């Protein structure tokens, strides 16, 4: 079983659509293009250096990386279904990772929240320590929850 607390991921460049959903679920998920990395060698080195499990659609790459999983599907929601079948925990328990930059989130307890969003004293709001982005459980969260329920 793979869980967000115990599994750090690296997505190959063909799996960019999985970034946000996996981060919303809580997985520490690196996308190499976010770090200006594209070459297979650089991706392999990143996985080894940071002890990350590689998710890829590249058959040759999966043979070169010991800790890797090959995905066959093209659409992110179908790829999430593949991950669920391979033992990944895919539930939305709470906010912990920024879907934009992968940074850790902190709960905003009081004070100013997002300019266009809920008041943190009335509804849970989180803010990314790294990029400052605010999050709350809106329609994007609800849509992903519905899709995960139907996997």
Features:
151 residues; four-stranded parallel beta sheet
Brief digest:
The chain is an alpha/beta fold. The chain has a domain at 8-85. The chain has helices at 19-25, 40-49, 59-64, 76-85, 139-149; strands at residues 8-11, 28-30, 53-56, 68-70, 105-107, 126-128, 134-135.
Q: What does this 3D model show about the protein?
A:
With 151 residues, this protein is α/β, with parallel strands linked by helices. The strands form two sheets. It has a four-stranded parallel beta sheet with strand order 2-1-3-4, sandwiched between helices. It has a three-stranded antiparallel beta sheet with strand order 5-6-7, with no helix packed on it. The chain has a domain at 8-85. Helix content is 29%, strand content 15%. The model has no long low-confidence stretch (mean pLDDT 93).
Topology:
Elements (H helix, E strand, L loop, with lengths): L7 E4 L7 H7 L2 E3 L9 H10 L3 E4 L2 H6 L3 E3 L5 H10 L19 E3 L18 E3 L5 E2 L3 H11 L2
Parallel strand pairs: 1-2, 1-3, 3-4
Antiparallel strand pairs: 5-6, 6-7
Low-confidence stretches: none
Amino-to-carboxy terminus distance: 17 Å
Shape: globular
Order of helices and strands: EHEHEHEHEEEH
E-strand count? 7
What percent strand? 5-15%
- Secondary structure class reads alpha/beta
Percent of residues in helices = 25-40%
> Mean pLDDT across all residues, rounded?
93
Number of distinct helices: 5
Reported for the largest beta sheet, the result is: 4 strands, parallel
Biggest sheet strand order reads 2-1-3-4
What is the C-alpha radius of gyration, as a whole number of Å?
16 Å
């Amino acid at each position: 079983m793979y869980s967000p607390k115990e599994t750090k991921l690296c997505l190959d460049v063909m799996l960019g659509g999985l970034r946000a959903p996996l981060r919303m679920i809580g997985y520490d998920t690196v996308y190499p293009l976010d770090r200006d990395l594209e070459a297979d060698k650089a991706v392999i080195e990143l996985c080894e250096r940071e002890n990350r499990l590689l998710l890829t659609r590249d058959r040759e790459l999966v043979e070169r990386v010991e800790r890797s999983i090959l995905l066959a599907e093209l659409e992110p929601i179908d790829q999430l279904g593949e991950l669920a079948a391979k033992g990944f925990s895919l539930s939305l328990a709470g906010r912990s990772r920024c879907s934009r930059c992968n940074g850790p989130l902190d709960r905003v307890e009081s004070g100013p929240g997002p300019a266009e969003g809920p008041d943190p004293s009335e509804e849970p709001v989180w803010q990314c320590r790294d990029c400052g982005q605010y999050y709350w459980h809106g329609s994007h969260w609800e849509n992903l929850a519905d899709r995960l329920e139907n996997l």
